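fold description:
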Amino acid sequence: MPKSKKRVHSPLVDMSYLDLNNLDLDRAYSLREFEYISEQLKNRPIKIKEEFVHHFERDKAGKLVPMPPTTIYKEAVVAKIAYQLEDWNVGTKQGGVVTTSQGGFKLGNGEIRAPDVAFTSKEICHRLSNRQIWTFQGEAFSPTFVIEVNDFDNIQG
C-alpha cells in the first residue's frame, strides 16, 4: 500500500438505533451501518442462532452474512498460506498487499467479501483512494486473486 495514503475517518453518526443483540438478517444495511457493526464486533462477539459471530460479510442486496469463527486447524492453514504468500511477495519484490479474512473488499456488485487470503497487486494498490483503503464507501475494487480454505468440519479422525 502506498505510504502517502492517510486514514480517512468516517464522520461519527449516531447508530444507537442498531441493536447488535437483535440484528435483522432479512434487512438491507447501508455501508455506514455495516462499518459500524463491524467496528462494534471488534470488542465483542454476538450470538446468532446459538453461534458466536465475530464479523459479517455483506451480500449484493445489503444483507448481513454472519461469519462464525473458524477452527484452529483451518486458521493454521490460512496463516501458513498467508505467510508463504507474503514471503513470495517480498522475495520477488512484487510490492503488493497480502490480507486475511479480517480484510474485506467491496466488489462491483455491492457485496463485501472477506476471503481467507487475498493478494492485491501494487498496481491496484497505487490506484486506490484513501476512501477505498480505509472504508467500504469508495469505489469497488477486487484483489488480484483470493484463496479460500475448505472447512475441515467433515473430517473425522
Notes: Residues 72-91 form the longest helix (20 residues). Residues 101 and 115 are 5 Å apart (CA to CA).
